[in-house]
């Protein structure tokens, strides 16, 4: 019996190692393709006008830096629409203070949230109603743009005949757990939604980043805008899918040099963000989330347990090596996304196992604990 158990665990260790090696190969292929999907720098032409829409709810700590980064763009034909989604802090007051110095800013007081809508989607919809220009840029209230971000994006889209463009930006994390979870979650998302497939018109998979989404007014109207995804907590993915479904040419590019998005404020904000993100990709396969959570935990935790036991009982060095490879693989995969933080911190990659375990627990919690998700002071039940 003991020999049978030993054989089983040794075999499982080898299978898990092979799984990690396959993931490493997929990750290498994906990262190697990114040089084709980088936003190129461009100077402002002065030929474009653009409506920048910033939905904001209780963002008094970051709204000023977001607005100022938009106003500092080299492309000057801007109208900046800040939609205050019924904030209870100083978001509106701070916006008004900046508005007095720059007439390009319009502050929209958000109307009451209708039934069936998620707050951000409702705020974006209201911003669109007040916009006037042919190009629209949706920017999250925790996003800071580099000076040429708008000009470079517009020129890239114009040269290639695109109707929409979104950027994968740098990420800014605050706190130990956010630094553990953030890069790991980003790795999972980019492996689940490969850029080469997202940017291939023949593939059905679609994704945009809501923190920076540039889109033509005509294309936005054609896909139904945010109204078409009004109840979605992960509207980015659904908008990308809608663009693909309507055959609208768009690109999702690497734009780390052009924008920074602040993510995961506080431990509760981190947990709520995780639960929000995992509601969408598997929402039509509820119990398969548990399978994914179990397999994920097995991949992450078994090698460490096997390595520890092997060291205690003196197993052969080959088996120790196999376990070590499995433990090193997530670090190698997450290192790319750890480099995409500001400032870049490769050491965050060594927290990959911890981050992965937290993500898997969030998936399991979403299945076992009910669908309701708290987000920005409101509670939602995903569709």
Name the CATH superfamily assignment of the largest domain: Spore Coat Polysaccharide Biosynthesis Protein SpsA, Chain A
CATH architectural arrangement of the largest domain: Alpha-Beta Complex
Give the CA-based shape. Answer: elongated
The order of strands across the largest sheet is: 3-2-1-4-8-6-9
Which class of secondary structure composition applies to the elements?
alpha/beta
Distance between the termini: 49 Å
Tally of alpha and pi helices: 13
Residue stretches low in confidence (pLDDT < 50, at least 5 long) are none
Into which percent range does the helicity of residues fall? 40-55%
Tell me the Rg in angstroms: 22 Å
Strand content: 5-15%
CATH topology of the largest domain: Spore Coat Polysaccharide Biosynthesis Protein SpsA, Chain A
What does this structure look like?
- The protein is of the alpha/beta class.
- It has 2 domains: 2-31 and 281-378; 38-169 and 209-264, Spore Coat Polysaccharide Biosynthesis Protein SpsA, Chain A (Alpha-Beta Complex), CATH 3.90.550.10.
- It has helices at 2-32, 63-71, 91-99, 119-130, 149-160, 176-192, 195-198, 217-222, 235-245, 266-278, 288-313, 317-338, 352-368, and strands at 50-56, 78-84, 105-109, 135-139, 143-145, 164-168, 170-173, 212-216, 250-254, 259-263, 373-375, 378-380.
- β11 and β12 (378-380) form a beta hairpin.
- The longest helix is centred in the N-terminal third of the chain and has 31 residues, at 2-32.
- It is elongated, with a radius of gyration of 22 Å.
């Amino acid at each position: 019996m003991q020999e049978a158990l030993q054989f089983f665990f040794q075999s499982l260790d080898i299978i898990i190692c092979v799984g990690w090696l396959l993931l490493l190969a997929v990750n290498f292929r994906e990262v190697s393709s990114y040089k084709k999907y980088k936003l190129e720098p461009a100077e402002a032409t002065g030929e474009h006008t653009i409506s920048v829409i910033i939905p904001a709810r209780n963002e008094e700590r970051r709204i000023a830096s977001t607005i100022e980064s938009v106003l500092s763009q080299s492309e000057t034909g801007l109208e900046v629409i800040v939609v205050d989604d019924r904030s209870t802090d100083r978001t509106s007051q701070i916006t008004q203070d900046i508005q007095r110095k720059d007439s390009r800013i319009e502050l929209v007081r958000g109307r009451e949230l209708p039934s069936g809508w998620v707050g951000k989607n409702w705020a974006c919809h209201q911003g669109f109603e007040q916009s006037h220009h042919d190009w629209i840029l949706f920017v999250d209230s925790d996003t800071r743009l580099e000076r040429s971000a708008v000009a470079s994006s517009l020129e890239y889209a114009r040269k290639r005949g695109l109707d929409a463009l979104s950027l994968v930006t740098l990420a800014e994390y605050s706190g130990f757990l956010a630094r553990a979870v953030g890069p790991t979650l980003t790795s999972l998302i980019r492996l689940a939604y490969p850029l080469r497939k997202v940017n291939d018109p023949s593939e059905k998979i679609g994704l945009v980043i809501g923190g920076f989404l540039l889109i033509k007014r005509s294309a936005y109207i054609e896909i139904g805008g945010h109204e078409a995804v009004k109840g979605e907590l992960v509207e980015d993915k659904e908008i990308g899918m809608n663009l693909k479904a309507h055959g609208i040419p768009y690109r999702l590019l690497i734009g780390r040099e052009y924008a920074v998005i602040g993510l995961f404020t506080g431990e509760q904000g981190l947990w709520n963000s995780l639960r929000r993100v995992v509601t969408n990709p598997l929402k039509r396969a509820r119990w398969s989330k548990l399978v994914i959570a179990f397999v994920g935990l097995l991949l992450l935790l078994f090698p460490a347990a096997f390595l520890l036991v092997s060291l205690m009982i003196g197993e052969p060095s080959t088996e120790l090596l196999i376990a070590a490879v499995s433990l090193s693989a997530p670090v190698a995969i997450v290192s790319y996304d750890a480099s995409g933080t500001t400032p870049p911190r490769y050491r965050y990659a060594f927290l990959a196992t911890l981050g992965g375990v937290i993500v898997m627990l969030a998936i399991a919690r979403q299945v076992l604990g009910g669908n309701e998700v708290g987000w920005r002071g409101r509670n939602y039940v995903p569709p």
